[in-house]
């Protein structure tokens, strides 16, 4: 079993070394298209890139998000499930956007 994990670690290291040795991409390069074209060359790094590039950009400031959560989760409401808090914050954001229009 140790050999399997050791071989996998070596494959990851070699893939990373090849990726690092590549020249930097132009700033006009579409990163999603680049990863799609090079997915067979860097399969493990491609899976990692999918995880990170799939995170949507947000326009809400982190401080505002934390203060909204602080106002929601009080001493009396400290057992709310994470999905409930997330749903509440999304609904509140959408509702305030409708009111601003």
Q: Can you give keywords for this protein?
A:
101 residues; mainly alpha; 2 domains
What does this structure look like?
There is one protein chain. The chain has 101 residues and is mainly α. The protein has 2 domains: 2-53, no CATH class; 62-100, no CATH class. It has helices at residues 2-21, 31-37, 43-53, 62-72, 82-100. The protein is elongated, with a radius of gyration of 21 Å.
Give a brief outline of the structure.
With 101 residues, the chain is mainly alpha-helical.
The span between the termini is 61 Å
The low-confidence parts are none
Structural class: mainly alpha
What share of residues is helical?
55-70%
Q: What is the mean pLDDT?
A: 75
Largest sheet descriptor? none
Helical stretch count?
Answer: 5
Q: Supply the number of structural domains.
A: 2
